[in-house]
Design a protein that fits this description.
The chain is mainly alpha-helical. It has one domain (24-169). The chain contains 6 helices and 2 strands; from the N terminus they run αβααααβα. It has helices at 2-22, 31-36, 39-76, 82-107, 112-139, 163-169, and strands at 25-29, 141-146. It has a two-stranded parallel sheet. It is rod-shaped, with a radius of gyration of 29 Å. The N and C termini lie far apart (63 Å).
């Protein structure tokens, strides 16, 4: 008798739990679509791109200098003493290391470009996140998926896309 009661209680709890899970609301947004509708984001992205271009030119110029030093060394190699060869090779290696360090300084995980991107884009992304969070709270959504950053979403019914609602919250 106890077993039947326990099984019946467990089954009822599972059914009630399953019913509650089905009642959850879900929505989808496309953060790329939203961000590209925001002029602030476009301006910030353009600034980041300008910085990246400038940093890349700086790195490229240094690598060109290394290449030029190497070609000159190759052309003059036969005329140099062993000591002069060693000295030139060290200079080339030092300059190449300098170029790699500069590249890492600008483009590394904690580099100048990363910091600049975070400085310019993070406030806008935070604004987007807060608007989505408010939409979820007001709409009673348990989960809001981002179609732009989720390659496993194969199909999304446009009826559940709340991207325009988020844009309205952001004033666009």
């Amino acid at each position: 008798m106890k077993k039947i009661f326990l099984v019946a209680t467990t089954a009822a709890a599972l059914l009630l739990g399953a019913g509650a899970a089905q009642a959850q609301k879900y929505a989808v947004i496309d953060s790329e679509y939203i961000l590209h509708k925001m002029p602030k984001y476009k301006n910030a992205q353009e600034q980041v791109d300008k910085y990246a271009t400038g940093y890349q030119k700086e790195v490229d110029d240094l690598y060109k200098k290394v290449d030029e030093m190497f070609r000159t060394f190759q052309a003059e190699k036969m005329l140099l003493t062993e000591e002069m060869k060693r000295k030139r090779e060290e200079e080339i290696i030092t300059k190449e290391k300098e170029a790699k360090d500069l590249q890492r300084t600008h483009f590394g995980p904690e580099g100048t470009l990363f910091k600049k991107r975070e400085e310019l884009l993070k406030p806008i992304q935070d604004q987007l996140y807060n608007a989505v969070k408010d939409l979820a709270a007001e709409g009673g959504y348990a989960v809001i998926f981002d179609a732009a950053n989720n390659p496993s979403l194969i199909y999304i019914n446009p009826r559940y896309d709340r991207s325009d609602d988020v844009l309205k919250r952001l004033g666009f």
